[in-house]
Specification:
By secondary structure, the protein is an alpha/beta fold. Helices cover 43% and strands 19% of the residues. α4 crosses α11, α5 runs parallel beside α7 and α8 packs parallel to α9. The protein has two domains: 136 residues, Nucleotidyltransferase, domain 5, CATH 3.30.420.40; 173 residues, Nucleotidyltransferase, domain 5, CATH 3.30.420.40. α3 links the parallel β4 and β5. Bound molecules: 5'-O-[(R)-(carboxyoxy)(hydroxy)phosphoryl]adenosine and zinc ion. The site of 5'-O-[(R)-(carboxyoxy)(hydroxy)phosphoryl]adenosine has 20 residues, from α5 and α6.
Length: 334
């Protein structure tokens, strides 16, 4: 069964074709990074208009690369995300489904980030602990199957990716912030500046990164920085050290709580998904600490961590098989 997936929840226009839930036949992403760079963040209205321009060529490209003939269903992310952006993908998917008389599947973006770890694998890796770390979410789940998650903990304020992006802005690092912090940290020492770890109590599986972000802001202000102008008086080395100290703090908490969740739930496998799962330090620490604890770790390859439609088309297979298809009244939800 071949499924065309469409994903437009934020600022990437994505289309992919996946066979039988796991074999990726094409995975096309048109990034809007350049469009939003001068604003230092995603401007929702501009994102919607860019999706409108990119959607048809991106879908065409995905179908062409996949090569082999027709698809059997159309899947689309309809929640959560920027409402204007979601509407573009949902409208395109409905139109294609109606025109070609194909089943339509509505997909939850966060669920699909966990499913990214299942692509190109022989067997489905359930049950496991799932951690989604993206620009909008930081959530821990127990996952019993592709369509079955139970929330264990989530962010009480900023998502991890959001904290990365805002700290990069405070430090005057280029947009997009997450990859910039990752890059700057390579030249810094994680021990030079210590930020308190927000554990939120010994048993908590929730997250909070806004305090660390504020701690970075006050640390930088201590150097006489003009926060409004986004310029700092820190040397390049000091910026790298603060970036590395911040990153280490976030990574400590993400890895620590995920391993604790595995212990509490008695599960020996972990899937990590979402844009922040592309972070090199996070990947290295997860690899080291799961190996030491004898846990099985699934870290999707980079193109399946950040937003993409292969994870959407893959997950949709399981919904289609279970008969869970949507009508043409499928709604986008912010
Ligand atoms: O999953 P994603 O592509 O979109 C959302 O669903 O939000 O995640 C985007 C987030 C952004 O906050 C971005 O800065 C962060 O992922 N990100 C990273 C890295 N690459 C992307 N954060 C830290 N290190 C990276 N290498
Ligand atoms: Zn995402």
């Amino acid at each position: 069964m071949k499924i065309l997936g469409i994903e437009t929840s934020c600022d990437e226009t994505c289309a992919a074709v996946v066979a039988d839930g796991r074999r990726v036949l094409s995975n096309v992403v048109a990034s809007q990074t350049e469009v939003h760079r001068k604003y230092g963040g995603v401007v929702p209205e501009i994102a919607s208009r860019a999706h409108l321009e990119a959607l048809v060529p991106v879908v065409d490209e995905a179908l062409e690369q996949a090569g082999a003939g027709d698809v059997d269903a159309v899947a689309v992310v309809h929640r959560p995300g920027l409402i204007g952006s979601l509407l573009l993908g949902v409208t395109a998917a409905k139109t294609l489904a109606w025109l070609h008389d194909l089943p339509l599947v509505g997909i939850n973006h966060v669920e699909s980030h966990i499913y990214a770890g299942c692509l190109e694998r022989e067997a489905l890796p359930f049950p496991c602990i799932g951690l989604v770390v993206s620009g909008g979410h930081t959530s821990l789940y127990t996952c019993d199957g592709p369509r079955s998650q139970t929330l264990l903990g989530a962010t009480t304020d900023d998502a991890a990716g959001e904290a990365f992006d805002k700290v990069a802005s405070i430090l005057g690092l280029p947009y997009p912030g997450g990859p910039s912090i990752d890059e700057a940290s390579q030249r810094g020492s994680p021990k030079a500046v210590h930020f308190s770890r927000p554990w939120l109590g010994p048993d908590s599986l929730d997250f909070s990164f806004s305090g660390v972000k504020t701690a970075v802001l006050y640390h930088v202000r201590g150097y006489g920085a003009g926060a409004k102008t986004r310029r700092t008086n820190l040397t390049e080395q000091e910026v790298a050290d603060v970036a590395a100290g911040f990153q280490e703090c976030v990574v400590d908490v993400l890895v620590g709580k995920t391993l604790r969740a595995a212990e509490v739930c008695g599960l020996d496998r972990i899937i990590v998904g979402g844009g922040v799962a592309a972070n090199r330090r996070l990947r290295a620490r997860f690899e080291k600490e799961t190996a030491a604890a004898g846990l099985d770790l699934i870290l999707p390859p980079m193109p399946y961590c950040t937003d993409n439609a292969a994870m959407v088309a893959g997950l949709a297979y399981h919904y289609a098989q279970g008969g869970e298809v949507a009508g043409l009244d499928l709604e986008a939800r912010a």
